[in-house]
Amino acid sequence: MPRYARTEREALADLMWELGPDAPTVNEGWTTRDLAAHLVVRERRPDAAGGILLPPLRGYGERVRLRVAALPWADLIGRVRRPPVWSPLSNPLTDELANTMEFFIHHEDVRRVRSGWLPRDLPAGLQARLWKPGGLLARTALRRFPADVLVQAPGYGELTVGRGGDRLRLVGAPGELVLFLSGRQRVARVQIDGPTAAADRLRTARLGF
Questions:
Q1: Could you say which DSSP state residue 34 is in?
Q2: Residue 95 in 3-state DSSP?
Q3: Less Cβ crowding at N or C end of the chain, within 10 Å?
Q4: What average pLDDT does range 97-109 have in this prediction?
Q5: CA-CA distance, 5 to 189, in Å (whole number)?
Q6: Mean pLDDT across the stretch 134-145?
């Protein structure tokens, strides 16, 4: 069985190592060092990782992340590359489920900020693996959006989500959709059909978990 999470992790670690700790990412204000520290905290510091999603813990989580970011670059990349087997996110039973989308998105965060980037030709198996959490991401990101959005990944599936009103159609490959729905609209190659004002609102909405 392909191990897509491992493949994306290795590719991201290789690219960050090649570019160095100060390279920009799609995440505004974050360098590759910031991104690497985020990944390490997410897997190795469950006491601080809650700050990624929970506002009351955000300050503590950010302080921990900044301390981790101060590690030597080789050490930091080594920790990204070799996750702990005890982590609930990276052990052999959970790695594919918890990390395929995470590392795909962050790999593209580093790839797509560079001049001349092009979408990768992803294997169908990886696209299918991304569509499963992509459906949950769509339901979470668009649940309060003031329109009915038909999200279509041709050949993989579709769903409708939103609060009603204008009708929009968001179409793309699963990999492009998860980038769009995670708040990376400006670098995602998708098609949006529907009223212009609603489509523009979707392109600039604050999406993601």
A1: H
A2: helix
A3: N
A4: 97
A5: 22
A6: 94
Of 137, 132, 136, 146, nearest to 188 by C-alpha is 137
Block residue for tokens 């590392």: 103
Q: For residue 175, what pLDDT is reported? A: 98
Three-class DSSP category at 123: coil
| Biggest alpha carbon–alpha carbon distance for the chain | 51
Residue with tokens 């991201």: 12
pLDDT in tens, 50-101: 656 667 767 887 898 899 999 999 999 999 999 999 998 888 899 999 999 9
Q: At what angle do helices 4-19 and 124-141 cross, to 10 degrees?
A: 90
Give the pLDDT score at 160: 97
- Measure CA 69 to chain center: 19
Burial bucket for residue 68 (CB in 10 Å: 0-12, 13-18, 19+): buried
Which residue carries 């962050």 as its tokens? Answer: 106
Q: For residues 78 and 191, what is the distance between their CA atoms, to the nearest angstrom?
A: 38
pLDDT at residue 33 greater than cutoff 90: yes
DSSP class of 15: H
What does the pLDDT average to over 17-43? 96
CA atoms of 74 and 70, how far apart (whole Å) = 11
Q: What is the DSSP string of 156-175?
A: TEEEEESSSSEEEEEE--HH
Closest C-alpha to 173, from 158, 163, 194:
158
Residue given tokens 């593209």 in the structure block? 108
